[in-house]
Amino acid sequence: MRPDTRLSRMLHVLIHMQHHEGTATSDAIATMLGTNPVVVRRTMAGLRDQGYVRSEKGHGGGWVLARPLEEITLLDIHKALGAPQLFAIGLAGDNPNCTVEEAVNVSLAEAMDEAATILLAKFGKVTLAELAAGAAKASKGKLAMEHF
Amino acid sequence: MRPDTRLSRMLHVLIHMQHHEGTATSDAIATMLGTNPVVVRRTMAGLRDQGYVRSEKGHGGGWVLARPLEEITLLDIHKALGAPQLFAIGLAGDNPNCTVEEAVNVSLAEAMDEAATILLAKFGKVTLAELAAGAAKASKGKLAMEHF
DNA sequence: TATCACGATACTTCATAAGTTACATGATCG
DNA sequence: CGATCATGTAACTTATGAAGTATCGTGATA
């Protein structure tokens, strides 16, 4: 199964936009992500609808952050992307009379629900500002390494 | 994304095999699951290699449980299927010099690792015998209902 | 008015679980 | 032995959804 990389990509973009003066065009973002500007617009559309970024047309247009990174969590972006499927595992069968099938699926669903709750709770606790800070620190570390 | 239903299906089959006297052919299993016998053989191959079932050719051949359900956990079957991807979410980017990308992906990976640990721990604690017992109980409940 | 950048549509590509076809191999029955 | 049954395997097709692409419309700016 091909993994959904939209969350990872959007987080990456949003953090870069903080340092970016003015607007970032879909083309520029696409180049940074190694993808296509249409894909960028399509994916960013959800973030715009939820008020995390704004888009402007025409000369000097492009994308800008609409809220500080302190106020955006990973969970916010996950939801803005439409809260896509978290798990690659699914439940099979559609026979409502088979109690075995039902017991299996209930058990799997419970385990997955529990894991999803944990995962989304963690997503909700991490802000993009914290990720940006972590990246800045790592950057300094690298810079320091280069001096030796 | 199309979910992977192999775990759900194999658990279902194994529990039914407990009550099944003698062998169950791939055809019979496929009919029960609403799928194709070749898919059954392909998927059961991993379980056979790990010693959870045996297969016999020729007249009267088919599949039989090789171990009691008490000794098989959901995790065992997950592993026997090759421990396929749990999450539909993936990490993007391959630029080792971008600390932002790295920070984003490390954070996502940590959250997913934590959730995966929880999920697999739960899988490891549930035996197929327990699922079978739950199904039998539900079956009785249904039977009782039918009497009134 | 020309250009720039997003918005939107319609399509193609890609990856992979799932489904299908076909045939080989081995075991059992008569 | 030979027919039949069932698994083993290989090769191919289908289904699904993220991702990629081409094209044109729309609005904003110089």
Automatic annotation (TrEMBL), chains A, B:
| Top-rank lineage group of the source organism | Bacteria
Protein name (record): Rrf2 family transcriptional regulator
The entry's cellular-component GO terms read:
cytosol
InterPro entries for this protein: Tscrpt_reg_Rrf2 (IPR000944), WH-like_DNA-bd_sf (IPR036388), WH_DNA-bd_sf (IPR036390)
Q: Coiled coil: which residue ranges?
A: none
List the PANTHER family.
Answer: HTH-TYPE TRANSCRIPTIONAL REGULATOR YWGB-RELATED (PTHR33221:SF15), WINGED HELIX-TURN-HELIX TRANSCRIPTIONAL REGULATOR, RRF2 FAMILY (PTHR33221)
Q: Which GO terms describe its molecular function?
A: DNA-binding transcription factor activity
Q: Read off the lineage from the record.
A: Bacteria, Pseudomonadati, Pseudomonadota, Alphaproteobacteria, Hyphomicrobiales
